[in-house]
Amino acid sequence: MVSFILITSMLVSCKKFIEIPPPPTSITQTEQFADSTTAMGAIVGVYNYNPSTGFAYADGNINACAGQSADEISYTTTNDIQQFYTYTLTGLNSTIPTLWSSPYKGLYQVNVVINSIDGNTNLSPSFQKQITGEMKVVRALYYFNLVNLFGDVPLVTTIDYKVNTHIPRTSVATVYKQIVADLTDAAQKLPATYPSAGHLRPNLYTAMSLLAKVHLYQGAWQSAYNEADSVIKLGGYSLEPDVNNVFLDGSKEAIWQLPAKQSYYATADGRNFVPSYSGSVPQYVLTPFQLNAFETGDQRLQKWIGTSVITISGVAKTYKYPYKYKNIAASSTPTEDQMVFRLGELYLIRAEAAAHLNNLQQALTDVNAIRSRAGLTASTADVTSQAAVLAAIMHERQTELCFEWANRWFDLKRTGTAAVVLGAEKTGYTADAALYPIPQSQILLNNLLIQNPGYQ
Amino acid sequence: MNLNLCAKVAFVKRFSATQIVKVMKLTILLITIACLQVSAKAYSQITLTKKNTPLIDVLNTIQQQTGYTFFYKAKLIANIDVDVNLHNATLQQALDQVLDDLMLTYEVNDKTVSIKPAKISFLKEIKDKANKFFAGPSDITGKVLDSAGRGLAGANLRLEGTDFSTVTDNNGWYHFNKVPQGTYAIYVTYIGYIRQEKTIVVNGKDLTINFILKGSSSPLDQVQVIGYGADTKRFSVGSVSTVTAEQIEKQPVTNILLALAGQAPGLAVNATTGVPGSRVLVQVRGQNSLDNSPLSQKPYDQPLFLVDGVPFATQNANISQLSSLATLSRTNGGISQAGGISPFNNINLDDIESITILKDADATSIYGSQGANGVILITTKKGKAGKTTFKLNVNSSFNSEAKPISLLNTPQYLQYRKDAFAADAATPTTTSAPDITVFDQNKYTDWQHVVYGKTSNNTNVHGSLSGGTNENTFLISGGFTRSDFNYPGDYADQKVSLHSAIHHQSIDNKFTVNFVADYGYDQNNSPAFGGSSALLLAPNTPDLLSPSGGLNWYYKGFNLNGYQFYNYLKQPTSLQNYNLNSSLHLVYKIVTGLTIGADVGYNRNTTASNSQNPAAAQTPAYAPYVTASFANMIAQTINVEPQINYTKNIGNGLLTALVGATYRKILNFSNTTTGSGYSNDNFLGSINGATTVFTSDASNIYKYNAVFGRLKYVYAQKYIISLTGRRDGSSTFGPGRQFGNFGSAGVGWIMSEERAFQKALPFISYAKLSGSYGTTGSDIGSAYMYQPLFKPVTSSTAFQGVSPSAPYNLYNPDFSWAVKKSLNAALDLGFFNNRLLLNATYYREREGNQLVSYPLPIQTGFGNVFENLDANIQNKGMEFSLSSTNIKTKNFLWTTSFNLAFNRNKLLSFPNLAASSYNSLYIIGQPTSIIFGYKYKDVNPQTGLFEYYDRNGNVTSAPKYGLVANGGDQVPIANQEVNYMGGFGNTLNYKHFSLYVFCQFSSQNALNYLSRVYNTNAPSLSVSNVPAAIFGNYWKNPGDNAMLQRLASGYGSVAYKSASYFSQSSGVYDNDTYLRVKTVSLSYALPESWLKKLSIQSGSIFLNAQNLFTITNYKVGDPEQPGDFTTFPLQRIIGAGLNLNF
Questions:
Q1: Which residues of B are less than 8 Å from A81 in CB distance?
Q2: The model's pTM
Q3: Which of B621, B787, B857 sits opposite A446 (nearest CB)?
Q4: Residue-range domains of chain A with CATH
Q5: A40/B643 Cβ within 8 A
Q6: Averaged pLDDT of chain B
Q7: Given pLDDT bands bounded at 50, 70 and 90, which one contains residue B575?
Q8: What is the 3-state secondary structure (H, E, C) of B341-390?
Q9: Interface contact flag, B961 A456, Cβ < 8 Å
Q10: Which of B860, B869, B921 is the best mutation test for A, with the most CBs of A within 10 A?
Q11: Which pLDDT tens digit goes with each residue over B50-69?
Q12: ipTM at complex level
């Protein structure tokens, strides 16, 4: 009889038998955005310095890859990451997917936050405004790097996978339009003050800094000048007198830093570039071109470039490696943060914009501010020659911004000098090499993605 | 005749003495009259009491006692058992008693007796008429017993050609009411017993007719476990294969799934590696679903496993969370499944009674949404009534690599590396080529021998105690198995099992309870890292161990960090798994034919693992990063299944009905804790010594609820119909999508029961046509995925005091069951009295509405979303099996079994395939195991580069990526489907000796060794050895017709690019056909005369071997593990042992 009752009761109340309690190790999206405190979890999830579920490019690959594609560094052991150096990349390269996927993973996080905050009555209008502004800066930064690495990329601004899965590559111009729109909106929403301690989340000047860079890349010299000028004049930042302090937590120069503390290491650049022990060959070493770019007495050569001497079979060999970030271990003091924007770059943006606007004196003044901090004398460039001033700016960018956010690689490409410079220094560079291949796995999954020329 | 004699005994109980006397008198009178014509004069006095004895034996005894010679046709008296009770009887009395009612008569001539079929004599007719005149219908009563004298409940009795049929009660009694007069064949059938038939004459007297059924030795009547019940092959309409304890015990393997290889048609078994305790994958009738698998690997559905009715090891999943040799395996024969530790390690092979594989809808749809990939039922041993017996099995075996490979030796290797630099006119440097520039040029180490060359041991001890009475039986067994790793260092997989089974039946047979508890403990100690890469160390790699056993980290100032192998041996990982599986089976018989009961099962499987990276394993050149990881996993299943069974004769047929319900809850919990900053290596067994700790956990809850039913009707022992239905609810799905209905219908026709068939084809003793059609489903997935979730970001520090969280999945509330439709048709034939049995099965299975983790481009934010896919995959095939008793004499028995299966997979439809994420993986109308790539031509003798055909058929060394449809040069180049597979075994028994040889074979198109060699890039690019088969086969000079292209020394090499296409070309696929002598077992039954002195009932000694040798066309590596010759190799096991029964 017991089974009769059981069976009958099951027939009646099947639904009850398969009800399960709420998930113990996760929460729903609604719960995540229940109020401004809980929503902060998802927001710091965007800034979280974790290569797989955090800020895109926090894994440092952009510097390691673009540094090789440019003329900054080379890789010492045999690995397919060398394909960046030799311009033999294919869509099967094992590092390419991370350059593509980490910003898109990050973009989804950003889009979810924007989507969940918009019109959410549990959150105050001021909170909504603040967070939307921050997220749009992040979104703009991701797209800025994507278009510069890959060219046309799918422009995704919503969270519906049914739509997003079929988005083809969007033209660079359209993506830039979105970037500018996002940054303009962010600049309207964000206050000049930082929303939390330190410079760890974007403020108004962060939006303006990226806007300055975007305008510079697009040749909108006056806009670039204005944005950079405002940041320099109004932001309250100042150049760190000692180059050793530039990348530290709390650097006066920092416009935006990520609190770079992983469980095992401090910053990805520190881990990638600094040899794990004194006796080992660094993974990446400076090319002679980068090394020779430093002038005698340049503090940056002394303090931002590391030296490793290794003796094999009695023969000593010296290796130079990027040493802007010095910590490998997470527990090191003083703490370094991963720099996203700093005043030094803004000086050089203003300089370049000024030079193009024929304000050559202003341009050299900005260059000299950077040179002076590096312990160098004023630039000897002919102040009457726009070309000479621009060359001095490029040279300064090469030594000041090396190994940072693919600046050198992007500079060579955007100024149209890649073919000349790289063609002279290295073999294998072709016009097609200016854009990286889209990961083949992604083309498999979305056949609307057409591979870049040269990789087909 | 025995019937009468038995009847007399019974009459004493049930009728009055006077009645008996009357009946006896009448009988004797009639017999006397009937026999007047017989001229026999019997002088001898015969005394004989026998029960249920073959007639021939009785006649022989009478012959001995009287001296008369008997003549008869052997056929006439074959298969007749009689009961006799003679005391000083004459020959005539004896023969009358023995032969009467057998429709036999006799004639005595001189000293000979001839026995003939009885002609119905005139007197007999009178007798019959008299009977009819004197009396009306009779009642027939009796008991059906097994050979031990126990009443068999639920046996089916029938009077042929009438509507009279009944089922025995709890004690084996049956009763027919008012059977009209006449001569009938009465027969009894009972699952697992030989059908018995007797001819009876109903003449108005009430009859008592008892049956003693003999267990059938015919495979047709072997009881096989099916979903929620048991059945025989004879009356089954489903596709069911059974592997018995006998087949399992002969194999010296330690995982029960390995023992299934080749044994059942349509069941593929894949060992992921040869690591003791590693996972074994099984698949029934091909792949049903698409998967987000990488390019060169096949997805692999796995069946539902049940141990004594309790769901076990969901998806056969890996139970280890930390790295070990078992998890490090690379390609698993081209299958996209991770390696790891098998959840089946805890089950001792010696505790298994049978393993049943349910394949078609008739057999699996009773499992509804869980049966789509087939069902494997594992049944453990139960106690047997009788004398208390202790069985002991001890064996020990040696393991070695089943198919070793040879790699380049030092001179060959150095030549090969130098050739690579010479090809590019490049100069080797200390960083790019320390092997040429720094290492000793004369040193040689055979790393293959160092890593896998050891011969290791397996030890297995198993003892079991069983016995009991008819009402109560018990079995207790314990086992210990230790399998050493065929790897340097002291690593082993050890298991301890404790199994018990008790059975109780109430005296009135109304209530039955069975309880099984199976406890297992498995400990797997392994290095956390190492293995395959060490195999490919340069043969002149400097000594990595110092003479004192320490690790060498430098050689002439060169850091050996990237070459060290022995440090892995100092990074131990250990796994301890505890498994408790208990099942309670209760049955209560309400009335004859109707029972209620319940199966209650509980399984708890817990795993604790620890992995250590001590300072001692790390290079002393920099501060050590000392870590230890701890992982725990708990999986728990509660399963309650109340059931009602009903058996009734309706018309001329037997109806069995089952109604049941399932309540199931599966809880999974796991956590991992990693600690770092230990000050001392000796603290690594505990988290307490860590300065920094990171923890993460995961949990999953699954609830499942169903009602199910089955109706089976067997009409006239000829026509079978079987209907199954199930309604399922699963918590995996979102609101409104939780319930699904599944069902099947099966029919069978035993043609050999038809008179016309018997006449036309008398040599066919059994013939059955059967078919089924039905649906099953799949609800594989994880909980909560129908809503968008956020999870905390693990191993990350808080951001300004706020813990970060991140989206966990994409939002899709709509996914639901996958549905598979299966069609099955089978022909079963038995020849020569079923000594040869053949089965041929055709099946066609189509799975639609596929439930998949649908791959998405990362621009959506995630690589996958859980989704139903409107694709339809068909698996269609034929399966054949044969079992034959070739020779059977007193001393010699030769039996053969054979099975063969062909499966053909095809993507039937896929709406909008071209726009989907699968556009480059599948083609409609082609198998889903198809691989796209470049069509390889050969090596250009002039340039020395690999050449491929482009989409226009032109030759190029730089084919274009992408399918032809997308402007590329990739075409289907291979189909990794298994073309055919099967096995055949022979058992030869001669007196005390028994020899069993089992071979397994398979043929497919698979990755060859070059796929590993060219896996990521050109082979000579790094300091790494290659198989000797490569040496001298690469291009060197213009005009060479070489197998492989010129070597490359760096990424700038001209040969680099053309090499990168090779691993995606048809050049890395080959036919992989093999026949492996899987098992050889020779046993010798020890003579009883010896054993008696030691008070041992029986015993045997045996030698057995697994993977003894292989015949194959596969070049380098093991054909069973294609694609990666560096994976931990499968083992050849040779062992010896002893079995004793006390």
A1: none
A2: 0.81
A3: B857
A4: 4-260+339-445 (1.25.40.390), 268-338 (no CATH)
A5: no
A6: 85
A7: very high
A8: ECHHHHCCHHHEEEEEEECCHHHHHHHHHHCCCCEEEEEECCCCCEEEEE
A9: yes
A10: B860
A11: 777 777 787 888 877 777 77
A12: 0.93
